[in-house]
Amino acid sequence: MSKALVCPCEDVTFDNLDHAVSHGHTDIESIKRFTGFGTGMCQGKSCMPAVSAYLHRKGLLPPEAQAPFTARPPLQPTRLAVLASDPVPAQEPPIGGTPPTIELSTPALKPDGQVPARAKIVIIGGGVMGLSLAHNLALRGETDVVVLEQGYLLAGATGRNGGGVRMQWGTAVNVGLARRSIELMKGFAREFGINLWLRQGGYLFLAKSAEVADRLEKSVAVQNAMGVQTRLIEQSEASELVPDLSLRGVRVAAFNPDDGVIFPWPFLWGYAQSCKRHGIAVETFTRVTGFKQSGAGITHVVTDRGEIACETVVLAAGAWSPPIAQLAGVTLPNQPHRHEICSTEPLKPFLGPLVSVLDSGIYFSQSMRGEIVGGMGDPLEPAGLQMGSTMRFASRYASALQELLPTGGNLKILRQWAGCYDVTPDHNPVLGRTPGVENLLQLNGFVGHGVMMAPAVGERMAAWMTGAAPDDDLFTRFNLQRFIDGRLEKESMIIG
Amino acid sequence: MARLSSSASGRRVSVDLDGRTIEAREGEPLAVSLVDAGQLLLSRSVKYHRPRGAFCMAASCGNCLVRVNGVPNVQACRVAVHDGMRVERQNAYPSARVDVFGFIDWFFPRGMHHNTILAGVPVAEQVMARVARQLAGLGTLPDLPARPLADAQSLQVPVLIIGAGPAGLAASQVLTEAGVNHVLIERDHIAGGRLNAGPLEAGAPPLDLPPPNTLWTSAQAFGVFEDAQGRFVAVEHQSIEGDRLVRIYAQALLLAVGGHARIIPFENNELPGIFAGRAATRMIRRHGVLPGRQVALVGRGEELAGVHASLAEAGITPVVTLDLGVPDAPGPTPSVGIELGALLAEPIRALGRAKIRGLNYRTPDGTDRRVSCDALVLALPPSPSYELASQLGAQVDFDPAQETFRVRADGSGATGVPGVWVAGELLGPCSAQEAAGSGQRAARAILAGEAAR
Predict the structure, then answer these.
(1) According to the CATH classification, is domain A5-69 in 1.10.10.1100?
(2) Residue contact B403–A49, C-beta within 8 A
(3) What dotted CATH number matches A107-160+265-334+426-485?
C-alpha cells in the first residue's frame, strides 16, 4: 500500500505528522514524542530534516524556532560489550553531562500573549502530578485553574522515566497509592481516548546481600497485609519467568504479577487533553519568575508572560520545586538527583517482567515497542539539576546488564538520556500546606516514582482541596511540618 | 549484475542468506555485495512489514538491518563480508518475500495512529495490546554472549580531526606540515569520503593520505563526554586485533563529518532499490557495483549533476532525470550538463511491491508519465551531520533554503565553543574543493590558537 514515510526506522508516515499537528503538537520535541519519529535505529539522522522541511513548508514553525531534537549519545548504535569495556573508577563521581546544558525550550517557542490575568488555582508544573491534579479538579467541577509548564509537555521527569508501575512498596500508604493508580491506569484509554499501553508483566525484584534480602522480605509482608499478591519465589521459578536471566548470587526473589510497565508519554497527553476539554489553560513554555505575597499568602504568580492573581498555588514542579519554593521564601528539603537511563534496539518479546536488582539499583524492562529500557542509580551522583548523559552510566549499566543477561553483550544502546529525581530525606513525598505560606500547597518530592503515583494522588488531592475529603491524612502526614517535627517514615523500596 | 572491471574487489566468497548461498566479496560491506547479487530486499519494517533494503550505505538510516552470525539488527552497510557469513532477514514470516504480516500495510492505508487506535474499545483494546506486543520489535536476542573486549584506552592528543573526507584530509595536511601531532579518525574502512565515494566533480582535490600513525580508519566517534581529565571523544575503533574503546582527549577538535542522506516525501519513498545519491556513487566508485540497470535519477543542483556524471562514467544513462529545483525558488532550476528528461511539477510516486519497478511523475505541462526502472537514485545535497557539534554545545540553525540544519561557525570554522571547529559540509552544501579549503582554514586557525598559547 502506498505510503510516504518520514521515518522508515519507526514506520512514521507524513500522515502521522498531520495527525500530530491536528492534536496540537507543532514543536519538534513534541512531534517526536507523539509520532515516534527519530526514536529508531538511526536516531533521526535521516528523518529530522525531513520533519523540519515539512513544518517549514506548512508554515507551522518559523526557521528561528526550528531546533533539532537533542542529539543524545551514542551517535551510532553501540554494543553493550563495547561500553562495558570501559573500566569505571570506583571513587570518581560522574562529571558533566551530554548535552552540557538543560534546554527545555528555545526562546522562539514562547507563545505570544499573556497568561490569564486571574485564576482561582495556579498549578506550577505541567508534569504528570500537576496535570493529574488539574484533571481531577475539573472532574470535581473546579475548572478555574491554570497550569504552568516551563518547557514542552514531557520536558521534565514525566517524559524521561522508565514507565515502571508497581505495588511492591515498603510502606502501606505507598502500596495503597500505587494499587489505586494501576487500577486507574487500566481504565485510562477508555476515559481519555488515548492508549497508555499498560502491560502487566509483573516486577521481579532480586536481592543479593543479606541486608537487602531482609528489606525485600519485609516489604513483601507489608504488601501481603494489604492484599497485594507478591510472592517470594524460588530461583527455579525466576528462571522460568525470564529464561535468559543469570541469577548468580541472588538470595531472594520477589514477584508480583500485577505490576507492569506503561508508556509514560500518552499519560500526560491524556490529562492535558482532558484539561483543555474542561477549559483549563495549560500554558507551556512559560516560566515562573516570582510571587507577590501579602500577609501569610501568595496573591500573584509572576511569570515571564505576565502575572496571575490567584487564591491557591500548587507546587508540582518535581526537581524544580526547591528553587521555585525559594521564590516564595520557602525552603524545601528536597534535592534534585540526576538518574540516567537508556534504551536498546527493539527486539521481539522475550522479557515479561521488569527486573530489578535492589542491591545495585539496576532495573530493566521490555517496552511495548520491544526495546530494553533500563537504568541504574549511581551512589556517587551529586545533588544538582543536571540532565546530561555520562559515559560512566553507560559503562556501569552495560556491565551490570551483561552480567544479568549474558547473551545481551551484542545488543546495542540506541539512546541514553537522564532526568532528575526529586529526592526527599525520607523518600516520601511532600504534600499539603506550607507553614507560613498558607495558600501554597505542595505536590512534589516523589523521588523518581511520581508517574506511578500520580493518578491516585491527583484524585485524593482534588478531593481534599475541594472539600470532599478535608480530613484526608495523606496531606498532614506528609506535609512539610514533618521535617520540623521529625515525624519521618522511611520508604525502603526506591530504585533507579 | 556485472561489476565494473575497473574496480578493486575482494576475493569471491560465499555467504549464507536465509539458507541460500550467495556470492559476495571478502571485506566488502555486506549491503553492497547483496545489491551486486540482486538481493535488494533485506527485511520487513517494524510496524507495517513493508519491504526494506539498503538506502544510504553510510549508517545514516536503519533500512538495511539483518541478523548476522546470530546478532540481530546489524547494519549491513557497516559489516564486512567474510567467507561463510550467516545472514538472516528479519521480521517476516514465512519469508521476507512472502510475509503474511504484510497485510498490516494494506489494513492501514493511511498509516496507523498508535496513540489513539482502538483506545478504550472494550475487548478490542486488550486484544490489540497482546497482538501489538507480539508484533513489535525487530530480531531476537543474540545467540551467544559477546566476546569481551580489551579494556578501553585513553589517548591525549593536541588535535583530533573527525572525518577523513576532503575537509579532514586537507586540515590534517596543514597540521602535518606544521609538525603538529594529531589524530584523524574515519569511520569507514578507508579514508577519502566523497573524494572516492561521492559524485564525480571537476576540481576535486587529489586524495593525499596522512602518515599511517595519524589516520585511524574504522573508528566511529559515538559521543563526547567528560571525566576528571577533561572532555573526551568516545571512539569505537575496529582493527585486526578486535574492537577497542578509546577515549580521546584533545585540546582542539575539528569536526569534518559531512552529512547524512535525506528523505523526501513521496509515496513508497523507501522501497528496496531506492538509493541515496551518495550510496549509488559509493557503490560505483568504491566497489564497481551498479545500483541497477534501468536507473531513474531525481535530485537537485550540483549534486544531481555530479551523480549524473558518476552514473555516466559507469555506463548508465538514466531512464529519466528529474530536477526538483530549489525549494524556495519560483521554479525548478535545470543544472548545467544535464539533458532533462522532465521537470518536476508534482510529487513523484515510486511503484513496486518487494522492490522498485517504476516511477510515476508529472511534467510541468501536466502530462502524467510512467517509466520502468529497477533503481531510483535520489541525488540531494547531504544534510549536515550536526549531532556531535551539538553535543559539544555548538549552535545549530535551520537553513530554510536547503531545508536542513547546519552548524553555526565563523569564516575559520570556529563554533564559539572553546576548542571546537567545524569544516566541510557541516557548514552547508559545498564542493569537495571548497570543503578542503574550509578544512585548511580551520587547521590554520587551530595553529594560530596553538601559537597564541
Answers:
(1) yes
(2) yes
(3) 3.50.50.60
Residues of chain B in contact with residue A410, where contact means CB-CB under 8 angstroms, are: 71, 142, 146
The whole-angstrom distance between B177's CA and the closest CA on chain A is 32
Tell if the CB–CB gap between A406 and B133 is shorter than 8 Å: no
- A-chain CB neighbours of B380 within 8 Å are none
Q: To the nearest whole angstrom, how far is the Cα of A372 from the nearest Cα of chain B?
A: 10
In B, which residues are within 8 Å of A10 by CB distance?
46-47
Nearest to B262 among A50, A189, A407 (CB): A50
Q: Which CATH class is domain B274-379?
A: alpha beta
Closest CB from A3, A66, A391 relative to B225: A391
pLDDT, tens only, A378-405: 999 999 999 999 999 999 999 999 999 9
pLDDT digit string (tens) for chain B, length 453 residues = 668 875 667 899 999 999 999 999 999 999 999 999 999 999 999 999 999 999 999 999 999 999 999 999 999 999 999 999 999 999 988 888 889 898 899 888 888 888 888 888 888 888 888 888 999 999 999 999 999 999 999 999 999 999 999 999 999 999 999 999 999 999 999 999 999 999 999 999 999 999 989 999 999 999 999 999 999 999 999 988 889 999 999 999 999 999 999 998 899 999 999 999 999 999 999 999 999 999 999 998 889 999 999 999 999 999 999 888 755 444 444 444 444 444 444 568 999 999 999 999 877 677 888 999 999 999 999 999 999 999 999 999 999 989 999 999 999 999 999 999 999 999 999 999 999 999 999 999 999 987 766
Which of B116, B220, B245 is nearest residue A194 as measured by Cβ atoms? B116
Query: How far off is chain A from B179, nearest CA to CA, in Å?
Result: 31
Architecture in CATH for domain B12-135? Roll (3.10)
Asked whether the beta carbons of residue A370 and residue B111 sit closer than 8 angstroms, the reply is no
* CATH no. for B153-260+382-452: 3.50.50.60
Name the residue ranges covered by the structural domains of chain B.
12-135, 153-260+382-452, 274-379
Task: Decide if A56 and B398 are in contact by the 8 Å CB cutoff.
Answer: yes
- Rounded to two decimals, the pTM is 0.95
Q: Judge if B153-260+382-452 and B274-379 fold alike in CATH terms.
A: yes
Contact state of B225 with A73 under an 8 Å Cβ cutoff: yes
Using the beta-carbon criterion (under 8 Å), do A350 and B140 form an inter-chain contact?
A: yes
From the list A12, A52, A71, which residue is nearest B387 (CB)? A71
SS (H, E, C) chain A: CCCCEEECCCCEEHHHHHHHHHCCCCCHHHHHHHHCCCCCCCCCCCCHHHHHHHHHHCCCCCHHHCCCCCCCCCCCCEEHHHHCCCCCCCCCCCCCCECCCCCCCCHHHCCCCCCCCEEEEEEECCCHHHHHHHHHHHHCCCCCEEEECCCCCCCCHHHHCCCEECCCCCCHHHHHHHHHHHHHHHCHHHHHCCCCCCECCCEEEEECCHHHHHHHHHHHHHHHHCCCCCEEECHHHHHHHCCCCCCCCCCEEEEECCCEECCHHHHHHHHHHHHHHCCCEEECCCCEEEEEEECCEEEEEEEECEEEEEEEEEECCHHHHHHHHHHCCCCCCCEEEEEEEEEEEECCCCCCCEEEECCCCEEEEECCCCEEEEECCCCCCCECCCCCECHHHHHHHHHHHHHHCHHHHHCEEEEEEEEEEEECCCCCCEEEEECCEEEEEEEECCCCCCCCCHHHHHHHHHHHHCCCCCCCCHHHHCCCHHHHHCCCCCCCCCCC
CA-based nearest residue in chain A for residue B227 = A95
CA distance B132 to chain A (A): 7
Domain boundaries, chain A: 5-69, 107-160+265-334+426-485
Selected residue of B135, B248, B263 to mutate for chain A interface (largest A Cβ count, 10 A)? B263
CB contact under 8 A, A68 and B146: no
